Every structure is written in structure tokens, then in C-alpha cells.
Amino acid sequence: MTPSTFELNYELTSEDVTAWKNFWHANFVARLMQHSRVFNLFVLILGAIIGLAVVGVFRLIVWAAGLTWDPMLYWLYFYGAIGGVVVTFVVFRSKRSEFGKKLIKRLSRDGLSEKDKDFLGHRTLTASMDGFTIESPQGSTTRKWNVVNCVHVTETHVFIQADVAVVVPRHAFSTDTDRDQFIEAVMNWSQQVPSEDNTTE
Length: 201
Description:
Blueprint: E1 5-12, H1 14-34, H2 36-64, H3 75-94, H4 96-108, E2 121-128, E3 131-136, E4 139-143, E5 150-153, E6 157-161, E7 165-169, H5 176-190
Antiparallel strand pairs: 1-2, 2-3, 3-4, 5-6, 6-7
Helix pairs in contact: 1-4, 2-3
């Protein structure tokens, strides 16, 4: 029988915080890819910048060679921007999935910031049908389940995403049965479907 209340006491390590950051980055990139308008706008801006940069480099070469820059050549900036957008759009469209993976790696490659280190240390998580409370050295936060946007389950963590991030590592549970009961209860209380694991931990 699933308990009506859970109280978990555990330590959050740098590995746990890194796992959360990797999940957040993967989730961000996935949403970026799903919203084609945002993705197309990103490609449009990036392509224009690349095109203008190429024309700018060409103009520097002309200047360095002591040649005269014909005012008519300013049209190159326009065509360069258009060409950059077209080429970038074709390349990104054909390698959209690969681009997403590289973007995740790039976002996740940095270590823990000073702000991230505030997440380290002891946690007490109390969860029931009424909501959840997370206590840490920085203070206590209580939320209702209706503010939860996503519940993400991996082999090593349970991530509860709301306006606050709740990271529950596997070592917070005495047994796998306890963990399974916690996940089941959280899913029921928050009315969430567990998201797919897009991260590599």
C-alpha cells in the first residue's frame, strides 16, 4: 500500500546538481526544437549574422589589399545576409537532431557556478496529497501539486519541475520499492505523466 506521506532526508552532491542541469538543458533544447517558429527565428538571426560576417571579412581583405570599395558593393551585405540565412537554414534543417545534441553538450559542459553550489547539502522533502515542502540550509519552500510542470524520472534521479526545482537522488530511498511508491504517488498527486529520459547521466 502506498504511504499517504513521504519524508525523505538526503544529501545533494555535485553529481546530483550536474544531473539536474543536464536535464534542464535537454528539456530546453527539446522545447526549442518543437516550436518551429522559435527555431526558425533562431536560424534566421544566426544565418544573417554569419552572412554579414563573411561580407565584413571580405571587405577587410579588400581594404588590406589597398583596393577601392565600390559603393555598389554594399549590396553584398544584403545578399550576404540572405545567402547566410538560406545556407544556415538548409544545414540546420538537415542536421536538426545532431545540432540539438551538440547544443545540449555545449550548454552542459561548464562546471558548477557559485549559484549552483547553493543547491548542495542536506535536504528534507516532505510530500503528501496536499503538496510538498523542501527544507535546506537556505530555508523552507512549500508548494501545491498544481504548480508542477513536469516530473522526470531517470535511473538515478527523480526531478520535479515547478517554479522551484526538486532533485531526488536514488540514494534518498532505502529500497527500490520505496522509490517506486514515491514516484507513483507524485504522479497521482501532480496528475503528471513521466517525461522521457533525454539525458545521459
